Amino acid sequence: MSASRTSLSLLRTLVPYKTQTRAVTYMPRPGDGSPRPVTLIPGDGIGPLVTNAVEQVMEAMHAPVYFEKYQVHGDMKQIPQEVIDSIRKNKVCLKGGLRTPKGGGVSSLNLHLRRELDLYASLVDCCNLPGLPTRHENVDIVVIRENTEGEYSGLEHEVVPGVVESLKVITKFCSERIAKYAFEYAYLNNRKKVTAVHKANIMKLADGLFLESCREVAARYPTIKYDEIIVDNCCMQLVSKPEQFDVMITPNLYGNLVANTAAGIAGGTGVMPGGNVGAEHAVFEQGASAGNVGKKKMVEQKSANPLALLLSSAMMLRHLQFPAFANRLEEAVKNVILEGKYRTKDLGGDSTTQQVVDAVIAKIE
C-alpha cells in the first residue's frame, strides 16, 4: 500500500465521515417552494416580543413565508372578522398569547378562535432537551387535547342568586375525531402507546362516552398499545414516573392541566411548542402558557423566552411542507440550549429576548 493510501486510511480512522442525516421527505411539485402567507397575531403581554423573535429568525433563514399582521387583544369583545377571514384564506396562523379577563362574563378570544375555525385538536410536545437539566430524564410526551367542548363549552348561567350552573358537554362526534387524530398521530410518528386520561369513575356518562369512543378507535390500530388512567392518578404518575407516557389523549380541561404539568417536568413552558389544528386550519402558539402573558416584568425587561414559539414556528414550517427549514430552525434552537451561554431567567440565565434571538440566528446553518 502506498504512503498516501496509508495516510488516507489512518485519517479515516481518526476522523470518521460525518453521518449524512438528510432525507427526501416528498417529491415537490412546481410552485411548492413559493412563499406562503401566514396570519400573525402578536397578542398581549410578551406576545409581541416572542412573535417579533420569530419574524427575525424567519427573515434571517430566508424561510418561504411572509406574515399578514393583525392586532388582536384579549379585552376585545370578539376577534375582528378581517382576522378570521385572513386565517380562513391562509389556512395557517401564528399567534402570541391573548389575555383572558378573569370573571365578569367576558369570554376568551382563544376559545372563540378555536370554535370559529373548528380547531378541535391541541397538540403540545413535551420532551427533554439536551443541555437543559430537569429532575426526570427520558421524558418524551405528546399531549393531544380535545379543544372545542367539555368544561370549556362556555355554557354557564346563574340559576338563582348564589347558584351557578356550568355545563360540561361531551359528544360522540368530538370524542371520536380527537381519538382518531391521536391514534393517527401515533401511527404516523412511530409512537408506541396512547393513554386516555379521564374521570369516568365519577362522571360516568360524560367521561364514559369519551372512553367508549377511544376504545372503539383503539381497536382499529392493533400495533399501538392503548391504556387508560384516571386524571388524579395521572398527575401523580406524571410527576413521579413521566417516562411511562408516550401519547396522551384528554378531554378539554384535563388536557390543559396535563399539558402544563408535562411541560414543567420536561423543562418549563418556555421551551414547549404547540399548535391547534382542525380539518382546514392550524394555529401555532406556545404549547403551554401557564400565565406568561400577564407577566409585566418580562415585558419591561424584554426578557421573555422566545424558544417555545420558535419551536412552534418550526412545527408550522413542517405543517407547510418545508421540512428542511423546520429542521434548521429546530437544530439552531437546540444548539443554543445545549451551549447554555444565552438563557432567559426561566431557564436559569439573565439573557434578554433579543440576545437569545441573536444566538439562534448565529446557529442557523
Automatic annotation (TrEMBL):
InterPro entries: Isocitrate_DH_NAD, IsoPropMal-DH-like_dom
Primary location class: mitochondrion
Domain Isopropylmalate dehydrogenase-like: 37-360
Keyword Lipid biosynthesis: no
Gene Ontology BP annotations: isocitrate metabolic process; tricarboxylic acid cycle
UniProt function note: Performs an essential role in the oxidative function of the citric acid cycle.
Protein name: Isopropylmalate dehydrogenase-like domain-containing protein
Species assigned in the record: Gossypium darwinii (Darwin's cotton)
